[in-house]
Design a protein that fits this description.
By secondary structure, the protein is α+β, with helices and mostly antiparallel strands. It contains two helices and eight strands.
Length: 136
């Protein structure tokens, strides 16, 4: 269920952001130091399962995700940097209020702060998706 949801999120992004954008999931490696890869990559990562309430065998939770836009600033040309900025905005717009399934609407949240190690820049935002677990 959790990773089916991630697949749906990635499909939503693929339909709403610029064609050809590189979109990766939780288990996909990001290695921008490999010169054969795109210098701009977006990655959706499951960050946390936050249980909000439980009654017996029923647990409500928020799946906390981060969408990070990674840019190799040394390799990215000006148009690719512009595309990275647009990818961030387009990804937020694609997910804000999106109903992944009936009654399960994305809530935009804080992401990690912008990070820069001198070569790789990370721009990110967080989002939550309500879910329900049933014990067996």
């Amino acid at each position: 269920m959790i990773f089916d949801t991630e697949t749906a999120i990635l499909a939503r992004l693929a339909a709403k952001v610029a064609p050809g954008s590189v979109l990766l999931g939780t288990f996909d490696p990001v290695d921008l130091t490999d010169d054969t890869t795109s210098p701009v990559v977006a990655q959706v990562v499951l960050m946390e399962i936050d249980a909000t309430s439980q009654t017996g065998k029923h647990c409500r939770a928020l799946l906390a995700y981060e969408c990070g836009i990674y840019v190799d600033v040394r390799r990215a040309a000006a148009p690719q940097k512009t595309a990275a900025a647009a990818l961030l905005v387009d990804a937020v717009n694609a997910l804000v209020g999106w109903e992944a399934s009936p009654g399960r609407e994305v809530i935009i949240a804080d992401g990690r702060q912008t990070g820069f190690d001198g070569r790789i820049l990370r721009l990110s935002f967080g989002f939550h998706l309500p879910t329900h677990f049933v014990g067996t």
